[in-house]
Write a structure and sequence with these properties.
Mean pLDDT: 92
Number of helices: 15
Low-confidence stretches: none
Strand content: 15-25%
Strand order of the largest sheet: 9-10-5-11-4-1-3-2-16-17-18-15-12-14-13
Largest sheet: 15 strands, mixed
Distance between the termini: 46 Å
CATH architecture of the largest domain: 3-Layer(aba) Sandwich
Structural class: alpha/beta
Number of domains: 2
Protein backbone atom coordinates (compact mmCIF):
# COMPACT_ATOMS: atom_id res chain seq x y z
CA UNK A 1 0.00 0.00 0.00
CA UNK A 2 1.31 3.42 -0.88
CA UNK A 3 2.12 5.80 1.95
CA UNK A 4 0.62 9.26 2.07
CA UNK A 5 1.37 11.87 -0.55
CA UNK A 6 4.48 13.92 0.14
CA UNK A 7 4.97 17.67 -0.25
CA UNK A 8 8.41 19.14 0.47
CA UNK A 9 8.55 22.89 1.05
CA UNK A 10 11.49 25.16 1.81
CA UNK A 11 9.68 27.43 4.29
CA UNK A 12 6.78 27.10 6.69
CA UNK A 13 4.20 29.47 5.23
CA UNK A 14 4.79 27.93 1.81
CA UNK A 15 4.26 24.52 3.36
CA UNK A 16 0.92 25.52 4.87
CA UNK A 17 -0.49 27.35 1.86
CA UNK A 18 0.40 24.43 -0.42
CA UNK A 19 -0.87 21.88 2.07
CA UNK A 20 -4.15 23.77 2.16
CA UNK A 21 -4.78 22.94 -1.49
CA UNK A 22 -4.94 19.24 -0.53
CA UNK A 23 -6.85 19.76 2.73
CA UNK A 24 -9.45 21.80 0.84
CA UNK A 25 -10.17 18.68 -1.21
CA UNK A 26 -10.98 16.66 1.92
CA UNK A 27 -7.52 15.13 2.44
CA UNK A 28 -6.25 15.07 6.00
CA UNK A 29 -3.04 17.10 5.76
CA UNK A 30 -0.29 17.47 8.34
CA UNK A 31 2.42 20.12 8.01
CA UNK A 32 5.59 19.47 9.97
CA UNK A 33 9.27 20.34 10.07
CA UNK A 34 11.83 17.83 8.86
CA UNK A 35 13.13 17.83 12.44
CA UNK A 36 9.68 17.14 13.95
CA UNK A 37 9.54 14.25 16.45
CA UNK A 38 9.29 10.84 14.80
CA UNK A 39 6.10 10.11 16.77
CA UNK A 40 4.19 12.91 15.04
CA UNK A 41 0.75 11.35 14.39
CA UNK A 42 0.42 10.35 10.74
CA UNK A 43 -1.52 7.07 10.59
CA UNK A 44 -4.62 8.82 9.27
CA UNK A 45 -2.76 11.41 7.24
CA UNK A 46 -3.41 11.51 3.50
CA UNK A 47 -0.81 14.17 2.70
CA UNK A 48 2.33 14.87 4.66
CA UNK A 49 3.88 18.30 4.10
CA UNK A 50 7.44 18.74 5.33
CA UNK A 51 9.23 22.06 5.74
CA UNK A 52 12.96 21.59 5.27
CA UNK A 53 13.58 25.27 6.16
CA UNK A 54 16.15 25.28 3.35
CA UNK A 55 15.32 28.42 1.36
CA UNK A 56 18.45 30.20 2.56
CA UNK A 57 20.59 27.13 3.23
CA UNK A 58 23.67 26.47 1.14
CA UNK A 59 22.76 24.47 -1.99
CA UNK A 60 24.35 21.19 -0.93
CA UNK A 61 22.65 21.24 2.48
CA UNK A 62 19.31 22.09 0.89
CA UNK A 63 19.60 19.22 -1.59
CA UNK A 64 20.59 16.79 1.16
CA UNK A 65 17.60 17.83 3.28
CA UNK A 66 15.20 17.24 0.40
CA UNK A 67 16.79 13.88 -0.43
CA UNK A 68 16.48 12.76 3.20
CA UNK A 69 12.80 13.69 3.40
CA UNK A 70 11.93 11.71 0.27
CA UNK A 71 13.61 8.68 1.82
CA UNK A 72 12.72 5.21 0.57
CA UNK A 73 8.93 5.25 1.02
CA UNK A 74 6.71 4.65 -2.01
CA UNK A 75 4.70 7.87 -1.84
CA UNK A 76 1.38 8.18 -3.67
CA UNK A 77 2.79 11.37 -5.20
CA UNK A 78 5.74 13.70 -4.61
CA UNK A 79 5.39 17.48 -4.87
CA UNK A 80 8.35 19.83 -4.45
CA UNK A 81 6.94 23.16 -3.39
CA UNK A 82 9.00 26.16 -4.52
CA UNK A 83 8.59 29.86 -3.92
CA UNK A 84 6.24 31.63 -6.33
CA UNK A 85 8.85 34.40 -6.66
CA UNK A 86 11.66 31.87 -7.31
CA UNK A 87 13.64 32.53 -4.14
CA UNK A 88 15.64 29.65 -2.73
CA UNK A 89 17.49 26.60 -4.02
CA UNK A 90 15.14 25.68 -6.86
CA UNK A 91 17.63 23.86 -9.05
CA UNK A 92 19.44 21.84 -6.41
CA UNK A 93 16.21 20.81 -4.70
CA UNK A 94 14.59 19.78 -7.99
CA UNK A 95 17.65 17.69 -8.83
CA UNK A 96 17.49 16.14 -5.35
CA UNK A 97 13.88 15.05 -5.85
CA UNK A 98 14.78 13.38 -9.14
CA UNK A 99 17.85 11.80 -7.57
CA UNK A 100 15.77 10.37 -4.70
CA UNK A 101 12.91 8.98 -6.80
CA UNK A 102 12.38 6.81 -9.82
CA UNK A 103 10.54 9.61 -11.57
CA UNK A 104 10.78 9.92 -15.33
CA UNK A 105 10.42 13.70 -15.27
CA UNK A 106 10.17 16.73 -13.02
CA UNK A 107 7.40 19.04 -14.21
CA UNK A 108 8.28 22.58 -13.12
CA UNK A 109 5.45 25.14 -13.03
CA UNK A 110 5.83 27.78 -10.29
CA UNK A 111 3.03 29.97 -11.66
CA UNK A 112 0.04 30.90 -9.51
CA UNK A 113 -2.16 33.11 -11.69
CA UNK A 114 -4.67 33.71 -8.88
CA UNK A 115 -1.85 35.43 -7.01
CA UNK A 116 -0.44 37.29 -10.01
CA UNK A 117 2.41 34.84 -10.68
CA UNK A 118 2.62 33.78 -14.33
CA UNK A 119 5.20 32.20 -16.63
CA UNK A 120 5.21 33.33 -20.27
CA UNK A 121 7.82 32.36 -22.89
CA UNK A 122 9.89 30.98 -20.04
CA UNK A 123 9.88 34.29 -18.14
CA UNK A 124 8.38 34.30 -14.66
CA UNK A 125 6.37 37.41 -13.80
CA UNK A 126 4.82 38.91 -10.66
CA UNK A 127 1.84 41.08 -11.53
CA UNK A 128 3.30 41.40 -15.02
CA UNK A 129 6.79 42.42 -13.84
CA UNK A 130 9.80 40.10 -14.38
CA UNK A 131 10.45 38.56 -10.99
CA UNK A 132 14.11 39.63 -10.89
CA UNK A 133 12.88 43.24 -11.03
CA UNK A 134 10.61 42.83 -7.98
CA UNK A 135 11.44 42.65 -4.26
CA UNK A 136 12.65 39.08 -4.82
CA UNK A 137 15.48 40.51 -6.91
CA UNK A 138 16.59 42.49 -3.87
CA UNK A 139 16.38 39.66 -1.38
CA UNK A 140 19.20 40.37 1.12
CA UNK A 141 20.25 36.73 1.37
CA UNK A 142 19.57 35.16 -2.04
CA UNK A 143 18.40 37.66 -4.66
CA UNK A 144 16.71 36.26 -7.75
CA UNK A 145 19.13 37.11 -10.57
CA UNK A 146 17.19 35.92 -13.62
CA UNK A 147 13.49 35.83 -14.47
CA UNK A 148 14.02 33.25 -17.23
CA UNK A 149 13.28 29.79 -15.85
CA UNK A 150 15.22 27.78 -18.47
CA UNK A 151 18.27 29.94 -17.73
CA UNK A 152 17.81 29.39 -13.99
CA UNK A 153 17.62 25.63 -14.56
CA UNK A 154 20.61 25.52 -16.87
CA UNK A 155 22.68 24.73 -13.77
CA UNK A 156 20.82 21.42 -13.32
CA UNK A 157 22.60 18.11 -13.73
CA UNK A 158 19.58 16.98 -15.79
CA UNK A 159 18.64 18.08 -19.29
CA UNK A 160 16.03 20.85 -19.38
CA UNK A 161 13.31 21.55 -21.93
CA UNK A 162 10.48 24.08 -22.07
CA UNK A 163 6.78 23.39 -22.60
CA UNK A 164 5.43 26.55 -24.29
CA UNK A 165 2.10 28.11 -23.49
CA UNK A 166 0.60 27.39 -26.92
CA UNK A 167 1.13 23.64 -26.35
CA UNK A 168 -0.19 23.84 -22.78
CA UNK A 169 -3.27 25.80 -23.89
CA UNK A 170 -4.17 23.04 -26.35
CA UNK A 171 -5.13 20.88 -23.38
CA UNK A 172 -4.22 17.84 -21.28
CA UNK A 173 -3.86 15.44 -24.20
CA UNK A 174 -1.27 17.69 -25.83
CA UNK A 175 0.57 18.03 -22.52
CA UNK A 176 0.58 14.24 -22.06
CA UNK A 177 1.98 13.76 -25.57
CA UNK A 178 4.67 16.38 -24.98
CA UNK A 179 5.74 14.76 -21.72
CA UNK A 180 5.89 11.29 -23.27
CA UNK A 181 7.95 12.67 -26.17
CA UNK A 182 10.34 14.27 -23.72
CA UNK A 183 10.66 11.13 -21.58
CA UNK A 184 11.81 9.10 -24.57
CA UNK A 185 15.08 11.00 -24.52
CA UNK A 186 15.74 10.16 -20.87
CA UNK A 187 15.06 11.54 -17.42
CA UNK A 188 14.96 15.31 -17.14
CA UNK A 189 13.21 18.54 -16.26
CA UNK A 190 10.33 20.15 -18.14
CA UNK A 191 9.78 23.86 -17.42
CA UNK A 192 6.22 24.85 -18.30
CA UNK A 193 4.58 28.13 -19.19
CA UNK A 194 1.29 28.97 -17.44
CA UNK A 195 -0.55 32.28 -17.48
CA UNK A 196 -4.03 31.07 -16.52
CA UNK A 197 -5.49 28.62 -14.01
CA UNK A 198 -6.66 26.39 -16.86
CA UNK A 199 -3.02 26.02 -17.93
CA UNK A 200 -2.07 24.64 -14.51
CA UNK A 201 -5.07 22.30 -14.67
CA UNK A 202 -3.99 21.09 -18.10
CA UNK A 203 -0.45 20.47 -16.87
CA UNK A 204 -1.56 18.42 -13.88
CA UNK A 205 -4.18 16.50 -15.86
CA UNK A 206 -1.74 15.88 -18.71
CA UNK A 207 0.88 14.54 -16.31
CA UNK A 208 -1.70 12.17 -14.82
CA UNK A 209 -2.76 10.96 -18.31
CA UNK A 210 0.78 10.49 -19.55
CA UNK A 211 1.36 7.22 -17.72
CA UNK A 212 4.73 8.54 -16.60
CA UNK A 213 6.11 8.79 -13.09
CA UNK A 214 6.15 12.57 -12.71
CA UNK A 215 7.27 14.60 -9.70
CA UNK A 216 5.69 18.03 -9.52
CA UNK A 217 7.62 21.22 -8.82
CA UNK A 218 5.52 24.31 -8.23
CA UNK A 219 4.05 26.85 -5.89
CA UNK A 220 0.64 26.31 -4.30
CA UNK A 221 -0.98 26.99 -7.69
CA UNK A 222 -0.13 23.68 -9.38
CA UNK A 223 -0.92 21.75 -6.20
CA UNK A 224 -4.57 22.74 -6.60
CA UNK A 225 -4.89 20.39 -9.59
CA UNK A 226 -2.55 17.46 -8.90
CA UNK A 227 -4.35 14.11 -9.02
CA UNK A 228 -4.41 12.36 -5.63
CA UNK A 229 -5.85 9.13 -4.22
CA UNK A 230 -9.17 9.51 -2.37
CA UNK A 231 -9.12 10.24 1.39
CA UNK A 232 -8.40 7.18 3.53
CA UNK A 233 -10.52 8.29 6.46
CA UNK A 234 -12.24 11.27 8.02
CA UNK A 235 -11.50 14.59 6.42
CA UNK A 236 -9.89 17.61 8.05
CA UNK A 237 -11.24 18.73 11.42
CA UNK A 238 -12.92 22.13 11.39
CA UNK A 239 -12.06 25.15 13.54
CA UNK A 240 -15.35 26.60 14.80
CA UNK A 241 -15.73 30.36 15.06
CA UNK A 242 -15.98 31.59 18.66
CA UNK A 243 -14.59 34.29 20.95
CA UNK A 244 -10.86 33.81 21.53
CA UNK A 245 -7.89 35.96 22.43
CA UNK A 246 -5.58 36.39 19.44
CA UNK A 247 -1.81 36.81 19.43
CA UNK A 248 -0.45 38.09 16.10
CA UNK A 249 3.26 37.80 15.38
CA UNK A 250 4.29 39.92 12.41
CA UNK A 251 7.88 39.38 11.39
CA UNK A 252 7.65 39.94 7.65
CA UNK A 253 9.09 43.14 6.16
CA UNK A 254 7.32 42.66 2.84
CA UNK A 255 5.54 45.83 1.66
CA UNK A 256 2.27 43.88 1.40
CA UNK A 257 2.41 43.02 5.08
CA UNK A 258 3.35 46.60 6.03
CA UNK A 259 0.27 47.84 4.16
CA UNK A 260 -1.84 45.33 6.07
CA UNK A 261 -0.42 46.58 9.36
CA UNK A 262 -1.42 50.11 8.42
CA UNK A 263 -5.03 48.95 8.39
CA UNK A 264 -4.97 47.92 12.06
CA UNK A 265 -5.91 50.14 15.01
CA UNK A 266 -2.88 51.31 17.00
CA UNK A 267 -4.07 50.09 20.41
CA UNK A 268 -3.25 46.34 20.12
CA UNK A 269 0.12 46.86 18.40
CA UNK A 270 3.33 46.12 20.32
CA UNK A 271 6.42 47.20 18.39
CA UNK A 272 9.58 45.36 19.33
CA UNK A 273 12.34 47.57 20.74
CA UNK A 274 14.93 46.76 18.08
CA UNK A 275 17.89 48.30 19.90
CA UNK A 276 17.06 46.24 22.97
CA UNK A 277 16.44 43.10 20.90
CA UNK A 278 19.88 43.37 19.33
CA UNK A 279 21.69 44.10 22.59
CA UNK A 280 19.66 42.02 25.08
CA UNK A 281 17.17 39.58 23.49
CA UNK A 282 16.09 38.15 26.85
CA UNK A 283 15.32 41.54 28.33
CA UNK A 284 13.57 42.72 25.18
CA UNK A 285 11.40 39.61 25.05
CA UNK A 286 10.39 40.00 28.71
CA UNK A 287 9.30 43.59 28.03
CA UNK A 288 7.43 42.64 24.86
CA UNK A 289 5.69 39.69 26.55
CA UNK A 290 4.46 41.93 29.36
CA UNK A 291 3.09 44.43 26.84
CA UNK A 292 1.38 41.68 24.80
CA UNK A 293 -0.11 40.13 27.93
CA UNK A 294 -1.59 43.50 28.87
CA UNK A 295 -3.10 43.96 25.40
CA UNK A 296 -4.56 40.46 25.46
CA UNK A 297 -6.16 41.04 28.85
CA UNK A 298 -7.54 44.47 27.97
CA UNK A 299 -8.49 44.05 24.31
CA UNK A 300 -8.34 40.36 23.49
CA UNK A 301 -5.81 41.05 20.70
CA UNK A 302 -2.06 41.70 20.73
CA UNK A 303 -0.06 42.35 17.56
CA UNK A 304 3.67 41.85 18.10
CA UNK A 305 5.58 43.57 15.30
CA UNK A 306 9.32 43.36 14.65
CA UNK A 307 9.36 45.76 11.69
CA UNK A 308 6.57 48.38 11.86
CA UNK A 309 7.91 50.22 8.80
CA UNK A 310 10.21 49.62 5.84
CA UNK A 311 13.11 51.39 7.57
CA UNK A 312 13.07 49.08 10.61
CA UNK A 313 15.52 46.47 9.22
CA UNK A 314 18.06 49.21 8.58
CA UNK A 315 17.66 50.53 12.13
CA UNK A 316 18.25 47.05 13.53
CA UNK A 317 21.41 46.60 11.44
CA UNK A 318 22.63 50.05 12.50
CA UNK A 319 22.12 49.08 16.13
CA UNK A 320 24.20 45.98 15.53
CA UNK A 321 27.02 47.92 13.92
CA UNK A 322 27.14 50.28 16.91
CA UNK A 323 27.59 47.22 19.11
CA UNK A 324 30.06 45.51 16.76
CA UNK A 325 27.55 42.77 15.83
CA UNK A 326 27.39 41.41 12.27
CA UNK A 327 24.19 41.54 10.22
CA UNK A 328 23.47 37.82 10.39
CA UNK A 329 23.67 37.85 14.18
CA UNK A 330 21.39 40.89 14.29
CA UNK A 331 18.71 39.06 12.34
CA UNK A 332 19.14 35.99 14.54
CA UNK A 333 18.74 38.06 17.71
CA UNK A 334 15.56 39.71 16.48
CA UNK A 335 14.15 36.28 15.59
CA UNK A 336 15.24 34.97 18.99
CA UNK A 337 13.43 37.83 20.70
CA UNK A 338 10.20 37.13 18.83
CA UNK A 339 10.33 33.41 19.59
CA UNK A 340 11.18 33.98 23.24
CA UNK A 341 8.31 36.47 23.58
CA UNK A 342 5.84 33.90 22.28
CA UNK A 343 7.24 31.22 24.59
CA UNK A 344 6.88 33.49 27.62
CA UNK A 345 3.22 34.11 26.82
CA UNK A 346 2.45 30.38 26.86
CA UNK A 347 4.68 29.14 29.69
CA UNK A 348 4.98 32.25 31.84
CA UNK A 349 1.66 31.73 33.54
CA UNK A 350 -2.03 31.71 32.56
CA UNK A 351 -3.88 32.72 30.63
CA UNK A 352 -2.08 31.81 27.42
CA UNK A 353 -3.34 33.21 24.10
CA UNK A 354 -6.21 31.15 22.72
CA UNK A 355 -5.17 31.49 19.06
CA UNK A 356 -2.23 32.70 17.03
CA UNK A 357 -1.63 34.38 13.69
CA UNK A 358 1.88 34.57 12.24
CA UNK A 359 3.24 36.03 9.02
CA UNK A 360 6.66 35.40 7.51
CA UNK A 361 7.91 31.87 6.87
CA UNK A 362 11.09 32.05 8.95
CA UNK A 363 9.23 33.77 11.77
CA UNK A 364 6.51 31.11 11.73
CA UNK A 365 9.16 28.40 12.04
CA UNK A 366 10.73 30.21 15.01
CA UNK A 367 7.34 30.63 16.69
CA UNK A 368 6.44 26.96 16.27
CA UNK A 369 9.84 25.90 17.57
CA UNK A 370 9.43 28.13 20.62
CA UNK A 371 6.15 26.35 21.38
CA UNK A 372 7.66 22.91 20.73
CA UNK A 373 4.95 22.35 18.11
CA UNK A 374 5.43 19.39 15.80
CA UNK A 375 3.38 21.00 13.06
CA UNK A 376 -0.06 22.10 11.91
CA UNK A 377 -3.10 20.02 11.07
CA UNK A 378 -4.89 22.00 8.36
CA UNK A 379 -8.65 22.49 8.44
CA UNK A 380 -9.24 22.77 4.70
CA UNK A 381 -10.57 26.32 5.04
CA UNK A 382 -8.78 29.59 4.42
CA UNK A 383 -9.30 33.17 5.51
CA UNK A 384 -8.19 34.36 2.07
CA UNK A 385 -6.44 32.86 -0.93
CA UNK A 386 -3.17 31.35 0.35
CA UNK A 387 -3.92 32.07 4.04
CA UNK A 388 -4.98 28.75 5.60
CA UNK A 389 -6.52 27.94 8.98
CA UNK A 390 -5.50 24.99 11.12
CA UNK A 391 -4.51 23.83 14.60
CA UNK A 392 -1.08 23.44 16.15
CA UNK A 393 -0.06 19.83 16.71
CA UNK A 394 2.00 18.97 19.76
CA UNK A 395 3.85 21.13 22.27
CA UNK A 396 2.55 23.54 24.89
CA UNK A 397 -0.01 25.03 22.48
CA UNK A 398 -1.35 21.72 21.14
CA UNK A 399 -4.74 22.19 19.48
CA UNK A 400 -4.51 25.99 19.37
CA UNK A 401 -6.11 27.50 16.25
CA UNK A 402 -3.49 29.06 13.98
CA UNK A 403 -3.39 31.05 10.76
CA UNK A 404 -0.17 31.45 8.79
CA UNK A 405 0.45 33.95 6.01
CA UNK A 406 3.36 34.47 3.63
CA UNK A 407 4.61 38.04 3.77
CA UNK A 408 3.68 38.85 0.18
CA UNK A 409 0.16 37.38 0.35
CA UNK A 410 -3.19 38.90 1.10
CA UNK A 411 -5.42 41.89 0.50
CA UNK A 412 -4.93 45.14 2.45
CA UNK A 413 -7.41 43.90 5.06
CA UNK A 414 -5.97 40.38 5.38
CA UNK A 415 -4.60 40.67 8.92
CA UNK A 416 -7.86 42.19 10.15
CA UNK A 417 -9.76 39.29 8.59
CA UNK A 418 -7.45 36.77 10.25
CA UNK A 419 -8.01 38.37 13.65
CA UNK A 420 -11.77 38.37 13.08
CA UNK A 421 -11.79 34.69 12.04
CA UNK A 422 -9.63 33.51 14.93
CA UNK A 423 -11.15 35.70 17.63
CA UNK A 424 -14.73 35.98 16.51
CA UNK A 425 -14.41 39.76 16.79
CA UNK A 426 -16.75 41.60 14.42
CA UNK A 427 -14.88 44.84 15.08
CA UNK A 428 -12.06 43.55 12.87
CA UNK A 429 -14.24 42.57 9.93
Amino acid sequence: MLSSGLVIADDLTGATDTGHEFAARGLRTLVSASTAPSDTPSSDTDVRVVDTDSRYADPSSAAAAVHDVVGTDDHSFVYKKVDSTLRGNLVGETDAVLDATAADLALVAPASPRNGRTTVEGYHLVDGVPVAETAAGNDPDKPVETSHLPTRYSASSYSVSRLPVNRVATGPAAVADALRDRARTGRGIVVADASHERHLEALADGAARSGLNVVYVGSAGLARYVETPPPRGAGPASVPTRDRTVLCVVGSTNPTTLDQLDGLPAEPVVSLDLDAAVEDPAGASAEAAAACSSRLADRGVAVLVSAPDEDAPRRALDAGRRLGIDDQTVRARVAETLGSTVERLWVGGPPAPESVFVTGGAVAADVFESLDAAGVVLSGTAVEEGIPLGRLSGGVADGTPVVTKAGAFGTPGAIRKCIARLGGDDAYE
